[in-house]
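pasting for ref. prot 1 ->
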Amino acid sequence: MRLLKLFLSPIVFLAPAIATAADDHSHDHDHGKAGFYGHLDLVVLYDHVYKAEDSDEEINEAYTHSHLEMGYDFGNGFSINSNFQLEGEPAGHDHGGGGSAPDGSNRYFVNTPLFVRSLTTNYDSDTFGAYVGKFDPVISFDEHALPGIYGYQIVDEYIVREKVGVGGYGQLNVGDYGIHRLDVSTFFADTTILSNSVLYERGRTRKSDGGVSNTENFSSVAVSLSGSGFYSLSSDIPEGLSYRVGFAHQAAGEGDETSEDRYTIAGQYQHIFTSDLNGRVLGEIVYINHLNGEIAHDRTYNTIGAELSYGQWDLGSTYTFVRNENSVDADEAQDGEVFQASLSYRFDYGITVGAGYKYQEEEGEKNHRIGALIGYSRAF
C-alpha cells in the first residue's frame, strides 16, 4: 500500500498540468505520438417523474453525467491518463452523492460531486500493455456501451469502479478470426485522498468503512476475455460480432460476511445496411454471487438492447430483468426490471439533443419518467 501511494504521488502532482493542456489529439489516441490528448463529454438530463408508488417521488429533476478524459503520451509507449467525472445522479441511486430518496421537492443538480474516476500510468504496445493507479477493472460492458440516453444508468448500478491496483492485457490478432484480448488486474477499493470529491464532498473512504475489496491489499482480482474484428468472407463467424466474458473476485472487507464473486458474458452484433443506416443488437448477463458480501443474497442482471442509427439520428433502447435471490430477507428477494428508450440527434459541431422514456421497478416500487438530454462532446 505504501509503495503504491508513492507511485501515485507523481501522478497526482501531474494531474493539474494535464487538466490545463489541449491539442489536436483525438479520443482514440494513436500511442507513439507524443503530446497531450483528451476528450470532453458534457451531458445534462432533465426528467419528469410523472407516475410513482409514492407521490413524493413524482418530481422534476436535473442532473449531469459528464467527464473529462486527459492524458499525455511520452512517445515511447508510456503515458499518463486521467478521467475527471462530474456525476449527479437521479433520485434513488447512490454512488456517494445525489442519489438520496426524494421528499417531494424538485431536485436540480443536488449534491453533485466532482472527483477523479481514474488516474493511471500506462505502457501500451501492439500486443500487450500494463497500467498502475486508480481505474475501473475490465469485467463487462462499459457503462457507455448501452444505447439510449438512460442506457448507462443500469450498468452504473453494478459496475466495479474506482479501484487502486495494477493490471495488464495481451492481445492476439488471428486475421479473419478476429482480435482477442485478455485483461487481468488485481486491486482494492480506493482509500486514498482521491476517494473524496469537491463541490459536494462524498467523504474519503476508509478501510474501517468495510465493503468488498476494501482491504488495502491485492486480494481482489478481475479477468476478462474479449474479441472483435471478425471477417465473414473467410470464416463462419459473422462480421460485426464482438464478445466479452469476465470474472471478478472481490475479497471481504471489515464487517462483510463473505467475499463477492461475479461472472459476466456479453455479446454485440453490428450491421451496416447502407452508408447512412446501421444498427446493432447486444446482450449481457451479469451474475453476482454474495452481492456486497452478503451470504444469502445473489443477483443477476439480464440485459438486451438495440440501436438503429440513420445519419446523425440514433434510436436506442434496452431492457433489463433483475433477478434477486435472498434466503433471509424476502424484501431483498423481489425481482425488478428496467426499460428505457430514446431518440437523439448529433449535430456536426459536437452538440447532441435527445428525448426518452424510462420505466423502473425496484423492490416492488414502480416509477415512470420522461426526459430530455443535451450534451456536448469534443476530442482534442
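and prot 2 ->
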Amino acid sequence: MEIVKTLDHEIIARLNKDVHDIHVLLYPEYFKKYEYESISGFFKKIVNNPNYDFLVIKGELEYFGYAWIEEKEIAESVFMKAHKFIFVHQLSTQNDYRHQGLGSQLMNKIEDIARERGIQKIQLDYWSNNVMAREFYEKKGYSVYREFIYKNLE
C-alpha cells in the first residue's frame, strides 16, 4: 500500500461514499443521500484547483481511503496576522478497513506535506455528533481552539 496524489475524480467520488454516508446518518437534515454522478461531477470541477491535493491510499488492485486537503493563506489584516495552514476538508477510510491505521497514515502524510511546505499548522473540522472523528483526532494530538455554535429559531 502507498499514499499517492490523484486527479481522478471518479476514484475520489467512490471513496467519498463512506464518509458521506456517515454525514447523512448523523445529520439527515443537512446532507443529501450519496449520489455518485453528482459527487463525481463536483470533484471533476475542483480536482485541478492548484490549492487542493487529493491523496489516496492505493493497494495493488484497489483503494482504501482518501483525503482532500487545501493549502490556505490568510492575509494580514487589522485583526489578524498573516498565516498559512493546511485545511483537511475530508478524510476517510473504507468501512471494511477502519481501525487498521490507514487514517493515521493519511494524517502522517498530510503532516509531512505541511512540513515540506514550511507550514506549521493543520486545521480541520468535524460534525460534533461524529464521535469516531473526534476520538481519532484527539488520539492524533489535535486540539479544539475554536467552536461553532447555533440556535434553531422557530
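Residues 84 and 118 are 9 Å apart (CA to CA).
The first strand starts at residue 2 and ends at 5.
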